[in-house]
Amino acid sequence: xxxxxxxxxxxxxxxxxxxxxxxxxxxxxxxxxxxxxxxxxxxxxxxxxxxxxxxxxxxxxxxxxxxxxxxxxxxxxxxxxxxxxxxxxxxxxxxxxxxxxxxxxxxxxxxxxxxxxxxxxxxxxxxxxxxxxxxxxxxxxxxxxxxxxxxxxxxxxxxxxxxxxxxxxxxxxxxxxxxxxxxxxxxxxxxxxxxxxxxxxxxxxxxxxxxxxxxxxxxxxxxxxxxxxxxxxxxxxxxx
Length: 240
Hints:
By secondary structure, the chain is mainly α. Among the domains are: 93-144; 155-239. Helices cover 36% and strands 4% of the residues. It is built from 8 helices and 3 strands; from the N terminus they run ααβββαααααα. It has a 3-stranded antiparallel beta sheet with strand order 1-2-3, with no helix packed on it. β2 (130-133) and β3 (139-141) form a beta hairpin. α3 (155-166) runs antiparallel to α4 (171-178) and α4 (171-178) packs across α5. The longest helix is centred in the N-terminal third of the chain and has 22 residues, at 4-25. The protein is elongated and about 155 Å long. The termini are far apart.
């Protein structure tokens, strides 16, 4: 029979073995972690030495003239319609060659002297005649598109107010003289200046046109044209 002392010695040897082997097998705190593998180096793509075609401008042209220089295609200009044949009715006594149809969708819109307009009477006793387009059968007054269209004031009053402004009289002084509101005088002044400026730019020859900033005269200079204008409706229609 084996004595208990033998088992005690065997257990002591096992503990001593554990105390020696555990520190040797335990990883140290100062051990560095394994470094990750470096990513593979990709070769740089080679740039092509072939020339590329020019794709055009990188910005929109500033004006229509610059757009024409870039070679951009424009829609074809509208074709002038044929003049309407004369009717067998009474010959017309009112000249409508300086007017055109303003209605959208009409073939004769914007064209002059095509015998497509007929002059009627003065509706409701108004000073302006009523014109009718024989193509679209639309009606419009003869002062359509002028500063006098839609105004309740008399034609004489509007022209005299603008003439005073062209002479250098102030807006408030003109309003006191003619007993009109100052903002009404200013509104008439702005409309007349814009229309006369557009009138001058449109009839100036294209070869002699200056840049837009230099081609716009002062509104007071535009209104000097009122000096030689009569008060009659026919003369006003020719000017505007």
